[in-house]
Structures
1.
Amino acid sequence: MASTSTALTVDQANARLHELTVIDVRTPGEYASGHLPGAHNIPLDRLDAALSALKTAADRGDLLIVCASGARSAQACRRLADQGITAAALTGGTTAWTQLGHDTHRPAGTRTPWAMDRQVRLAAGTLVLTGLIAGQRWNAARWLSASVAGGLVFSALTNTCGMAKILAKLPHNQPRASHLDDTLAALTG
């Protein structure tokens, strides 16, 4: 790949899938819901712990970083570039991948947690509703709804999501240590 800020379209990635090391930076729950064939799961919040393994993998061949929409993978590529590791992001992420009819793999026998965007919608909706209902009795509780609304506006304007970062820390969204260790071993072996 020519530069550290490379992006590949779904068609380009599909044509080169056999030669790319694919790193999925979504939460383990999102990864379990369907990932590109052969993808390794290293959640974005664990990226720093995986730098050595990612450097080794990048020295052997090209890295493709994947998330749901492309936002987290672009962020991961920037972080890797800061460490001298060249990687490309998948434009449109797994959403674009599946929309174009490409297969995704799911770990056998695992319960599929909700996708992060669905978790965010549930949490935001619950907090807004709670603020409105509690606000019937305690006016100050309406600030809960207002703060969530403000957070959603900020999220849209900055293309970031603080609530997703918080939800990603919940136990069902965390990789088991053994899974991450196995992934890192596969990348360095």
2.
Amino acid sequence: MHLDIANQRLNVARPSALCALFERFLEGGLLPPGHDALLHRLLRETATGPDKLRAGIPDGTVLGHKTGSSDRTADGRRIADNDAGYAVLPDGGTCILAVLVTDSREDDATNAALIARIARLVAQER
């Protein structure tokens, strides 16, 4: 995808589809038990994007997520800056989030702050 950034536009998913996938994953049975546990661990240990979903959720929340970002176009647009996953809140409630920022002319910090703000609003409303 980095050899031809136009190929990055072929990598698409609707936020609702990502949420449905995470919901199905949390219900269990999507993967064999060993693989299920491994994917939970990998998602919860994700180190990328500390300023995205993680920055917007309350302390004590368990977050399993996957970040993603693309290259920028010649005119400076970030094709995609994303974070999607699930949060187990301190009160035991669960929420699933997918925030996909597309064709942004903002800098990376602004995109991340937008993702964090949306996560904060979702966690508060849950």
3.
Amino acid sequence: MTKVLSLGGSIVAPDVPDAAFVKAFAATARRWLDADAARRLIIVVGGGGPARAWQKAYRDAADAPDADAQDWIGIMATRLNAQLVRSLFLDLCPHEVVTDPTGVTVFGGRVLVAAGWKPGFSTDFDAVVLAERFQADVVVNLSNIAKVYTADPRADPDAKPIDDISWKDFRAMVGDEWTPGKNVPFDPVASRRAEQLGLRVVCAAGKDLANLEAILDGKPFVGTTIGA
């Protein structure tokens, strides 16, 4: 049984690395893995505060910022965060941090940790590619929001939380185009691929680790289910 976690950089390193959260997350993951020897986890880590800060510095310094250059800055931040997460699973994760999800042919150990790949999408897309490659039944997208809303609740007081939504309706909300640093619940490029695969994605609050255990165990949880 393989589950994929798209672990938002905003909870790993909101500004600086959150050591307490990373430690608690690793302990939660280990408890879930210890309950069944057949269980495996793929953890794809985002860029968070470092990505945003360094991308902003580039935009402020460059006369004509290049989109690919911004993406590469963000990708490098994901790789630093992923190395931190992998370092807490050294006994379970024999592979180095994955930077090209299409090039992974073997999943040894119990944990695989991945980071950003190349410009044009976020680490959410990498998570979808790895879910397809290793036949995972769900991608759990962990971020700083508990549910997907009908609109941005910070800007629209009438925004309503959503429990379940089809890929068609979700993609109508987030669009089809990716721009570096785009702030949506799940990357539009990843959403298109997930819909093609019939993959289920759960969006939930990453810091609620008891809720994460419920999701992994197939129990009632707080979050938004997208797709099948």
